[in-house]
Predict the structure.
Amino acid sequence: EVQLVQSGAEVKKPGESLKISCKGSGYSFTSYWIGWVRQMPGKGLEWMGIIYPGDSDTRYSPSFQGQVTISADKSISTAYLQWSSLKASDTAMYYCVRRAGYSRAFDIWGQGTMVTVSS
Amino acid sequence: DIQMTQSPSSLSASVGDRVTITCQASQDISNYLNWYQQKPGKAPKLLIYDASNLETGVPSRFSGSGSGTDFTFTISSLQPEDIATYYCQQYDNLPPFFTFGPGTKVDIK
């Protein structure tokens, strides 16, 4: 079964760092782009950025450039999203997604990681 | 940046009704338009890709059409399990590359 499994919920304080993960299985991890999508509480979907694990080519939405870092470790089929200094406004659900090989759609979604930033 | 608008923002319809949602891009995006369903508390699910192609395993009551700037998503006969928010999403060769519409919340009347 093709799936993306994300790390568990996090509760952090403002200013702390965080790295969440997304492990792919059931397919060739290095052959598909993996992206990240933010959903703030009660709000819509926002695309953050995407990485090609095969060569680590990474693209960011201008809205998130410099705010987060996307990386991948192809040896363990895992992509990451990290923050160096969290803000309360980073409180959201974060989904990792696989870009389909046959279109520019996201065909596989992780279950989501809830990040809560509160003092 | 390409802007995406969806209408309506919400709707209520009866079981068996035909439901139509529209998505408009601020510039020509060819057929690079996808539709997702997000049920409460769940991750979104791809329903339609490249404007009109039904994703494998998705019921045939869902369909999509359009090209250029104007797109339509249709549920031919609304079912109780279709209660969800529906998002369109476009792809562009320039940043920000992928943009989601604001969503349409569908309820049963």
Remarks:
- The interface with chain A takes residues 1, 32, 34, 36, 38, 43-46, 49-50, 53, 55, 87, 89, 91, 95-103 of chain B (CB under 8 Å).
- The mean pLDDT of chain B is 96.
